[in-house]
Design brief:
- By secondary structure, the protein is mainly beta.
- It is elongated.
- It is 12% helix and 35% strand.
Length: 528
């Protein structure tokens, strides 16, 4: 039987229905296609990829500045692996808030995994190299509010004769925070000085919302002038410095130390999981040596889980970390709301300098759960003290383990007020608490740490007239019971068969039932 043809009006309705069904299907499919593109880019290029961004490839000998100028927010610039790009490159200020990523053309599988520190020897072949070739100029300059740039898997060579900065973020002449560069990131990059000439500085990090992560800085050293891996002095902050190797002669990291037109103080900064080191081979060489880290001006800074190794007297007395206001940062300089927790300092002439006598002063410092090991005047030409202090307000020093051969504290000038010193393991040595003009013991404490709380500490070799019965005063370190002092593990033994007679007290009957001393696994400190 012959099938009847559909009326024309029904054919038209079916066409319309099929058209709209197809359109709706396509609209539903587009997000899936975009998602697939996004996933592909994430796999191929990591977090730098963005939906809608294009890829700009720069081969060996290509024009990197032209690629930077052409790139739009969300774009990725791929630099040929192992190639060198010579110049003094500028990051322009462009509209938009997606990152322009500048990275090696090698895929992520050829780089260390995310959140893993780069080893430049292992990955040398895949890192493109940016080489400054203009005397006195950085490899990278970001000024005039430049923002949203990210570098991944790139090597930055030293400047000509090691002058000034390899990377310069900000000019220090900005009058307002709105003029500052912002949202600039460095991930798994390698910056280094010249082995013979050194380098003044790696990154001048004078911008807002900066991240420096998983990277490697070496040979930052100079004869007759200071050198830093990273310095921060002309910003109001939010800066993260996480999981880097930082090798510098004067300071691995410096906050403050120079003035800025907007009179800013760096704030809301995080320094975590880094290894700050000075190679011992430098000790017989010409480089100016000072500290691991110094805060001359800064507020709300957290310093957590860092390893610091090898610091000796040279340009200063070999002190590892300084919390020291200084008017070379401007009259607005303050050191306040600082937390120094979970760090290991190993090998230094002295440990900490606490000074709030200039600028806006110093206040609110917490030093908690740290190990200071091999703090020695004899070995590192310093003074071997744990703390040198003056003119600071509200200082809490608790649950630290300090292996040192000098005084517990050397105090001078104005007193430290609201001073709490509890649950620490320290050594009396020759002087214990020493005060300028008054000598040692209770007289020094009364003058320079008035109404101090000094309780629950193990003070090896201490005396009861000075410290009373609220501290523990063993004759030798052997009675404390460390897990493995020879291997740098200063946790207290906890197993029943290992406990020495007083260890149960040392472990539990202290402030807030915390153990005395630090509780740190040395294998977990300093990142990876």
């Amino acid at each position: 039987m012959k099938q009847l043809e559909k009326p024309n009006w029904r054919k038209k309705d079916e066409k319309k229905r099929n058209f709209w069904l197809g359109t709706i299907g396509l609209l539903l499919l587009l997000p899936m296609i975009a998602g697939c593109v996004f996933i592909f880019k994430k796999v191929a290029f990591g977090e730098s990829a963005a939906i809608g961004g294009k890829t700009i490839s720069v081969e060996a000998g290509g024009d990197l500045q032209s690629a930077i100028d052409r790139a739009q927010p969300g774009d990725t610039i791929l630099l040929a692996a192992g190639a060198s790009f010579k110049g003094a490159f500028n990051l322009p200020n462009k509209p938009g808030n997606e990152f322009i990523t500048i990275r090696t053309a090698a895929g992520d599988a050829q780089l260390p995994p995310a959140d893993t520190r780069i080893d430049p020897k292992k990955y040398a072949d895949v890192l493109p190299k940016i080489v400054p070739n203009v005397r006195g100029e950085p490899a990278i300059t970001a000024i005039n509010g430049a923002h949203h740039y990210r570098f991944i898997g790139v090597e930055f060579a030293p400047t000509i004769e090691g002058y000034f900065n390899i990377v310069q973020i900000g000019s220090t002449e900005e009058k307002t925070i709105e003029e500052l560069p912002h949202h600039i990131e460095f991930d798994r990059v390698y910056l280094h000085g010249d082995a013979k000439l050194g380098q003044r500085r790696g990154i001048a990090a004078n911008g807002r919302f900066l991240k420096i992560r998983n990277s490697y800085f070496s040979d930052f050293k100079r004869e007759g002038e200071e050198s830093q891996a990273i310095a921060i002095w002309a910003t109001d902050g939010n800066i993260e410095i996480v999981n880097n190797y930082l090798e510098a002669a004067a300071e691995s990291i410096l906050f403050g130390g120079a003035q800025n037109a907007a009179k800013l103080v760096a704030a809301d900064c995080l320094v975590k999981d880094n290894w700050m080191n000075k190679p011992l081979a430098w000790r017989g060489e010409k480089w100016l040596i000072k500290n691991f880290l110094e805060i001359k001006s800064g507020r709300k800074i957290k310093i957590e889980n860092n390893l610091m190794t090898n610091n000796w007297a040279h340009g200063q007395e070999g002190t590892g970390v300084l919390f020291r206001t200084a008017t070379d940062s401007g009259e607005q300089a303050v050191v306040e709301d600082i937390e120094y927790t979970g760090n290991i300092m190993r090998g230094a002439g002295s440990a900490l300098n606490i000074f709030g006598g200039e600028g806006g002063g110093g206040r609110n410092l917490i030093v908690r759960n740290n190990v200071f090991e091999d703090i020695s005047a004899k070995k590192y030409d310093g003074r071997g003290f744990f703390i040198k202090s003056t003119a600071f307000d509200n200082v809490i020093i608790e649950n630290n383990t300090v292996i040192h051969d000098g005084s517990i504290a050397i105090a001078y000038g104005a007193p430290v007020t609201k001073f709490v010193f509890r649950n620490n393991i320290v050594f009396q040595n020759e002087y214990g608490f020493f005060g300028d003009g008054v000598g040692v013991g209770k007289a020094a404490i009364d003058k320079y740490f008035p109404r101090a709380e000094i309780t629950g500490n193990i003070i090896v070799g201490g005396d009861e007239p000075t410290y009373g019965t609220i501290n523990y005063l063993p004759d030798s370190v052997a009675s404390i019971g460390f897990v493995n002092q020879a291997a740098g593990d200063y946790r207290l033994k906890t197993t029943a068969d290992a406990l020495l007679p007083k260890n149960r007290t040392f472990l539990k009957k202290t402030f807030e039932s915390k153990q005395i001393g630090a509780n740190l696994d040395p294998q977990t400190v300093g990142g990876r």
